[in-house]
């Protein structure tokens, strides 16, 4: 019996790590942060939304809060709502197919985390209109939870939060497993059309004419250092009087 | 005995002579794909790994279902699509960021990009769009047909070619075979292949089996689920669409598989039907 157990453990050790490691990192990348602000209230409201499809209760289709309920939410509650309940359909190909060895790559774009949904126009407008508050809330939430989900990164890119670069770098140095922070930094540089980045080989590799949303470059010390250094320089080009880390 | 591929090329020739366009209650010629064991998927593809599968013979429509065919269904049944009921169809216009669409309460299959962007009066031979997966199922039930399974679609679309594209197609000559988006992004309109949105079905060159538009025009709903669905009810569609560009999803191929909410209606989403052989 003991031998069978040992053989089973040995078999699992040989056969499962590569797959499960890949799966685990993918899961880590796709994990959103759940903001605590008004969370029970938001969850209760979401659970009461009347499904727009009345034929098939196994999938309710799109389900936005009514304008009245939405408008009654505080700023922080609206933030929580956006981070846990995207309210518009995403199109068929708006997904990022899992790839092998994702933990050894730096991707050009963040992965889709909302299943078959995405942020609606009112949610995007909320994030944009309240960008200062959104940055402050994300900073506060990440500092407390020591974790930055893909939805937070997505929101920062959406609102072009270049002011968050020092915070992102500081977070990355403490959470080096989270290579999507490097992606976030590159997306902010891209959004800002930062010349030193746009003319670089990294940019060509990730955002060039031959590439698509699943393009990546190898993760290594050189690419990591270069990305951090460029992002730092970009931030200082936007805010020259800021203290250097 | 003939190998499956050789057999179905032969049967295709026979089929093109033998079967009437109205045989299955809609305006489409059908191609016969014989049963057998086929290779599907791709090496190192995490969602569609290389494997062998066995299938029964089936007929598959040579082209995507048209507005004309869908109109007959609506006229016969009075069916109201989900986009009409819930006013939540997603439409496109050049200038939107990548993967960004607009909700348009006026959009449905007769106005697939919203009333402001025109109707289908002169596009009855274009694929029907702005219909949800559930709408496609309703059509199939009425017409006595069904959606292809994920595997059936791939076997018919690849026509025996193991790579991402069927024989003779490359990334550079694909514009002859598929109505896709050729611009770098979607900020500017792209008319370079003659069409901004959908094209009349069979406007581009077919695959070796005689199937048109498998790599472009509209995504095609299929039946079946994937491990990544985690038990959720998710619709899947394959091929490419007029929206698809090399720099965005690059999904205009026979291996990648998309995911969409079964209630969602997009103007780049349609279907092609199959009929089982008893």
Describe the structure concisely.
Chain B: This is SUMF1/EgtB/PvdO family nonheme iron enzyme. Chain A is mainly alpha-helical.
Indicate the low-confidence ranges of chain A by residue numbers. 5-19
Report the C-alpha radius of gyration of chain B, rounded. 18 Å
- Number of helical segments with 4 or more residues of chain A: 13
Question: What is the CA-based Rg of chain A, rounded?
Answer: 20 Å
- Assembly of the depicted chains: heterodimer
| Shape descriptor of chain A | globular
Distance between the termini of chain A: 59 Å
Low-confidence stretches of chain B: 5-25
The neighbouring-strand order within the major sheet of chain A is 1-3
E-strand count of chain A: 4
Protein name (chain A): DUF4919 domain-containing protein
Organism (chain A): Niabella yanshanensis
Keywords (chain A): Signal
Signal peptide (chain A): 1-20
Characterize the structure shown.
The complex is a heterodimer of chains A (245) and B (278). With 245 residues, chain A is mostly helical. Chain A has helices at 2-15, 17-30, 39-48, 67-71, 75-84, 121-129, 131-145, 150-158, 165-174, 180-191, 195-198, 201-207, 221-238, and strands at 88-89, 105-107, 117-118, 216-218. In chain A, helix 8 (150-158) packs parallel to helix 10, helix 9 (165-174) runs antiparallel to helix 10 and helix 10 packs parallel to helix 13 (221-238). The radius of gyration of chain A is 20 Å and the shape is globular. Mean pLDDT of chain A is 88; it is low at 5-19. Chain B has 278 residues and is of the alpha+beta class. Chain B is 18% helix and 13% strand. Chain B contains five helices and ten strands, in the order H-E-E-E-E-H-H-E-E-H-H-E-E-E-E. Chain B has helices at 4-18, 67-77, 82-86, 133-143, 150-158; strands at 30-33, 36-40, 51-55, 58-61, 89-91, 102-104, 219-222, 236-238, 269-270, 274-276. In chain B, the strands form four sheets. A three-stranded antiparallel sheet of chain B has the order 1-4-10. In chain B, strands 8-7-9 form a three-stranded mixed sheet, covered by helices on one side. The longest helix of chain B is centred in the first third of the chain and has 15 residues, at 4-18. At the A-B interface, strand 1 and strand 3 of A face loops of B. Chain B: It comes from Niabella yanshanensis.
């Amino acid at each position: 019996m003991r031998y069978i157990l040992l053989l089973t453990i040995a078999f699992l050790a040989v056969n499962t790590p590569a797959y499960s490691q890949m799966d685990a990192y993918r899961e880590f990348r796709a994990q959103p942060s759940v903001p605590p602000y008004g969370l029970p209230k938001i969850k209760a409201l979401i659970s009461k939304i009347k499904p727009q499809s009345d034929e098939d209760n196994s999938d309710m289709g799109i389900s936005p809060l009514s304008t009245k309920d939405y408008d009654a939410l505080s700023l922080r509650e609206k933030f929580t709502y956006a981070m846990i309940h995207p309210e518009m359909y995403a199109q068929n190909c708006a997904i990022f197919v899992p790839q092998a060895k994702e933990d050894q790559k730096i991707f050009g774009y963040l992965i889709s985390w909302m299943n078959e949904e995405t942020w609606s126009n009112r949610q995007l407008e909320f994030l944009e209109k309240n960008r200062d508050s959104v940055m402050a809330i994300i900073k506060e939430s990440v500092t407390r939870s020591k974790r930055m989900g893909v939805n937070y990164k997505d929101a920062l890119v959406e609102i072009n939060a270049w002011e968050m670069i020092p915070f992102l770098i500081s977070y990355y140095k403490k959470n080096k497993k989270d290579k999507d922070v490097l992606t976030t930094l590159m997306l902010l540089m891209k959004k800002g059309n930062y010349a030193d980045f746009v003319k670089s080989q990294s940019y060509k590799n990730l955002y060039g004419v031959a590439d698509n949303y699943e393009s990546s470059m190898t993760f290594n010390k050189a690419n990591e250092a270069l990305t951090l250094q460029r992002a730092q320089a970009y931030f200082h080009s936007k805010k020259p009087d800021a203290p250097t880390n | 005995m003939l190998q499956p591929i050789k057999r179905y090329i032969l049967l295709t020739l026979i089929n093109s002579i033998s079967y009437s366009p109205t045989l299955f209650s809609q305006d489409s010629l059908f191609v016969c794909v014989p049963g057998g064991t086929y290779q599907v998927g791709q090496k190192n593809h995490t969602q569609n790994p290389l494997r062998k599968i066995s299938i029964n013979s089936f007929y598959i429509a040579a082209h995507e279902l048209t507005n004309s065919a869908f109109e007959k269904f609506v006229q016969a049944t009075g069916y109201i699509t989900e986009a009409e009921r819930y006013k939540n169809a997603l439409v496109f216009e050049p200038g939107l960021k990548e993967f960004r669409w607009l909700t348009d309460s006026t959009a449905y299959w007769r106005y697939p990009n919203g009333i402001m962007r025109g109707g289908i009066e002169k596009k009855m031979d274009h694929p029907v769009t702005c219909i949800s997966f559930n709408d496609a199922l309703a059509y199939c039930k009425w017409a006595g047909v069904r959606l292809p399974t994920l595997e059936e679609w791939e076997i018919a679309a690849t026509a025996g070619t193991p790579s991402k594209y069927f024989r003779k197609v490359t990334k550079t000559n694909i514009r002859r075979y598929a109505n896709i988006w050729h611009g770098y992004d979607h900020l500017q309109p792209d008319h370079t292949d003659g069409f901004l949105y959908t094209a009349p079905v069979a406007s581009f060159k077919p695959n070796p089996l005689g199937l048109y538009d498998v790599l472009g025009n509209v995504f095609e709903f299929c039946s079946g689920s994937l491990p990544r669905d985690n038990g959720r009810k998710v619709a899947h569609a394959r091929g490419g669409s007029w929206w698809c560009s090399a720099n965005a999803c690059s999904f205009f191929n026979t291996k990648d598989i998309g995911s969409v909410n079964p209630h969602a209606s997009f103007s780049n989403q349609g279907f092609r039907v199959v009929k089982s052989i008893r």
